[in-house]
């Protein structure tokens, strides 16, 4: 383990899960429904700064019902994973990107920035104490999902930046994000709602963006789809992203297109890593605005051969069908490039391939 430079007070969980209980959970962890024995916490106060770093037993938070997070959604979060390599060591992927994005989100939500070393130290402390929850290297593609988050805790109903904030890290063993494992997902084009508009919070990782996606997500499910795809707020023509994943379009001539980061799209760490991996393969990669008609027509004509969604939780997921009010287009295919990029990324993350970019960080 890499030593931590922040000194965390540790309160052990006297009720830790037994090794047998952990083994049972790790056999089929699902996504986001089991949590490890501890959580890391750091408080912030205006005029005091960050203080009182600690690791405590995992459990409910006690907050005043008037705490700002409950009323005005002053909240941000991150998503990362810890991977066990064959030699037993535990690693995470490009954590400095998450630390940086958390601070970008913090500025947008008028929350305090957290020194990146504290961010990393909180992750390290939690994974160190709960390392029994990191699945073994031979357990397929399971990992320990890490969820850092920051919330406004001050009791006040006035609409203003909170004077008290909590940063916390929790962790949850994770298998496939989608129930049913890795199979192509179907997407519903939301015509009623948008996810984000220019100048809004689209590129921040804040709960409000995800809350805003839920009604469309429900509409997609009512229409027999797994996920919803959002279009831009102005012209309702340009493809943005899913509720929590970026999109890539693979063309039959080898070109790969992904929507450019216009301020309304989350700058995914998986997205930027895949762009690098694809460029290194000599593929022509375009970050540009991409219309829903290009997608519909390209998929129907065969010009678009594969579409995939990506994010930390779901890694890379092939898209098999696009549906909208009045039509649909199937993208059956072999998802060959999708699966090969997926494997390349996972091989780096699980230490099965050389980490030539220096992306892995030993916890
Ligand atoms: C992640 O991929 O880590 C996210 O935060 C997205 C969410 C849909 C789980």
UniProtKB/TrEMBL annotation:
Cofactor annotation: pyridoxal 5'-phosphate
Catalytic activity: L-leucine + 2-oxoglutarate = 4-methyl-2-oxopentanoate + L-glutamate; L-valine + 2-oxoglutarate = 3-methyl-2-oxobutanoate + L-glutamate; L-isoleucine + 2-oxoglutarate = (S)-3-methyl-2-oxopentanoate + L-glutamate
Membrane-spanning intervals of the chain: none
Pathway the protein acts in: Amino-acid biosynthesis; L-isoleucine biosynthesis; L-isoleucine from 2-oxobutanoate: step 4/4; Amino-acid biosynthesis; L-leucine biosynthesis; L-leucine from 3-methyl-2-oxobutanoate: step 4/4; Amino-acid biosynthesis; L-valine biosynthesis; L-valine from pyruvate: step 4/4
Entry annotated with the keyword Transferase: yes
GO terms classed as biological process: isoleucine biosynthetic process; L-leucine biosynthetic process; L-valine biosynthetic process
Pfam families: Aminotran_4
UniProt modified residues of type N6-(pyridoxal phosphate)lysine: 205
CDD domains named in the record: BCAT_beta_family
Single GO molecular function: L-leucine-2-oxoglutarate transaminase activity
The UniProt record lists the keyword Transferase: yes
Gene3D superfamilies: 3.30.470.10, D-amino Acid Aminotransferase, subunit A, domain 2 (3.20.10.10)
InterPro entries: Aminotrans_IV (IPR001544), Aminotrans_IV_CS (IPR018300), Aminotransferase-like (IPR036038), B_amino_transII (IPR005786), BCAT-like_C (IPR043132), BCAT-like_N (IPR043131), BCAT_family (IPR033939)
EC number(s) on file: 2.6.1.42
Keywords (A to Z) from UniProt: Amino-acid biosynthesis, Aminotransferase, Branched-chain amino acid biosynthesis, Pyridoxal phosphate, Transferase
Stated family: Belongs to the class-IV pyridoxal-phosphate-dependent aminotransferase family.
Name of the protein in its database record: Branched-chain-amino-acid aminotransferase
